[in-house]
Design a protein that fits this description.
- It is a single chain.
- The protein is an alpha/beta fold and about 450 residues long.
- Helices cover about 45% and strands about 15% of the residues.
- The chain has 18 helices and 15 strands.
- A seven-stranded mixed β-sheet has the order 1-3-2-4-13-7-14, with helices on both faces.
- α8 crosses α9 and α16 crosses α18.
- The chain starts with 9 loop residues before the first helix and ends with a helix.
Length: about 450
């Protein structure tokens, strides 16, 4: 199969990625990527790895200074690891694919189905890992396996739970003791909290966290981008209901600046004491535990709010490693992934419970670790996360996170749909119809390419 990316013109590529992100590891906000190198004797095989700067610094400390050097020595290899901010990863990856040169192993924080034609088939590795570690989490498989082509285009080591962070002190003062259990709770109490100067921190902009939150709201109300067979289903009464709820939340319970948020804004908003609730990974609470213990005591976690249809949310991230076809070290890259994933109990611990194992059989005492986390005040805050796979899923549910879902996500069609109604530019029904037209174009294109 010929890749759509390797045929891309320079003009098309710049339009896709943004010319400013093609430099040497510079993020959109100016932060420079980090790089480490660990090696054996001269003449050893060389493996080049690219992945994001982890949101829990202790994980990168372990990965760079412990796991990688030990692995390099054991495998007579020289390993270079380049870390880049999340926003830079996909543009950099596409740049390497277009130019057919770069890293041998790339870890992406979102499922890379659109790159299927440009990467090695990792089905043999997936089968070997399942034989040794047990079954992969089903929704994670939906992010890295194409049921049409029968190809594992990526392997996932971990995924990240989307949870509700809420200020227990503020919330209970406004509600006489209740918690944010449903979306109706968020609206009802959010109105009170906004008037008291502690609004909800729910993004409504073209960035990943807003996308994840709004997909969760859509799912909870029974809406979906596609069905199990890949038919576009976004224009539905359930989607209209979800849009109306998001419109009320934005206009009645959130500050206007959520329209311009970046992926880190809700973290910053909560940690600065400016809001009462955000939806994000546990890194928000982990940061508070380190930097503001007083806030951490009052910062609680719970599942995604329940909707009229279900209580379900996409994972905040599904970390997915790809091996580009141009790599001269495909077998060595597979060996690295094999060894990293089979050591995942250590990786899970070093991530401070952030990295949920994609192969859960490798961390059989996960529930005990969550229950007994030593930093939790009061004890047991993280315990409910042991069952998070029951209420987390993939983008594109109930279908897989296919190449079309990749494009829908990257084009931010879902947050744009919600914003059109929330700002009064369209009625909810018209916004859903607009999204249907945009999404159908994307699905038609990928069907012609034979990937969905």
């Amino acid at each position: 199969m010929t890749s759509s990316f390797t045929r891309m013109t320079r003009r098309e590529f710049l339009k896709l990625t943004g010319a400013g992100l093609l430099g040497l590891g510079l993020s959109a906000c100016g932060a420079r990527a980090s790089s480490i190198k660990a090696g054996a004797a001269s003449g050893a095989r060389e493996l080049k790895i690219l992945q994001q700067v982890h949101f829990v610094p202790a994980y990168d400390e372990w990965f760079d200074k412990d796991f990688v050097p030990r692995w390099a020595q054991a495998n007579n290899a020289t390993v270079t690891v380049d870390h880049m901010p999340f926003a830079d990863l996909f543009p950099r990856t596409v740049s390497e694919v277009v130019n057919q040169v770069g890293h041998d192993l790339i870890g992406l924080a979102t499922p890379p189905a659109a790159l299927e034609a440009d990467v090695a088939d990792l089905s043999d590795l997936a089968q070997e890992l399942e034989a040794k570690a047990g079954a992969i989490t089903p929704f994670v498989k939906n992010c890295i396996y194409n049921p049409k082509t029968k190809k594992y285009f990526a392997i996932s080591d971990h995924w990240v739970v989307l949870v509700t962070h809420w200020r227990k002190d503020l919330w209970e003062k406004a509600t006489a003791g209740s918690a944010p259990n449903t979306w109706e709770d968020l609206l009802k109490t959010g109105i009170k909290l906004k008037s008291a100067g502690a609004p909800l921190g729910l993004g409504l902009s073209s960035e990943l966290d807003s996308t994840i939150y709004l997909n969760a709201l859509l799912m909870c109300y029974g809406g979906s981008i596609q069905d199990e067979s890949g038919k576009v289903t976004i224009n539905s009464p359930q989607t209209v209901q979800a849009i109306k709820m998001a419109t009320d939340l934005f206009n009645k319970a959130c500050p206007s600046e959520v329209l311009g948020w970046s992926a880190s804004s809700n973290n910053q908003f909560m940690l600065a004491g400016k809001c009462s609730l955000v939806l994000n990974a546990v890194s928000v609470l982990r940061t508070a535990e380190k930097n503001d213990p007083e806030m951490a005591v009052n910062l609680y976690l719970s599942k995604i709010p329940a909707g009229p249809a279900r209580q379900l949310a996409p994972a905040n991230l599904v970390n997915s490693y790809i091996v580009p076809n141009f790599s001269p070290q495909i077998d060595l890259a597979k060996q690295f992934l094999h060894d990293l994933i089979l050591d995942y109990k250590t990786a899970f611990q070093k991530s401070e419970l952030y990295n949920m194992p994609s192969f859960p059989g490798l961390v059989p005492d996960l529930a005990q670790a969550m229950q007994g986390d030593p930093k939790s005040t009061p004890p047991g805050k993280y315990a409910f996360l042991a069952e998070a796979a029951q209420w987390c899923t993939n983008l594109g549910y109930p279908g897989p996170a296919n190449a079309a879902i990749n494009d829908v996500t990257d084009a931010y069609i879902i947050p744009r749909m919600f914003a059109l109604a929330a700002l009064g530019d369209m009625k909810a029904e018209d916004a859903a119809a607009w999204a249907e037209r945009e999404i159908q174009i994307i699905f038609n294109r990928w069907k012609l390419k034979g990937l969905i």
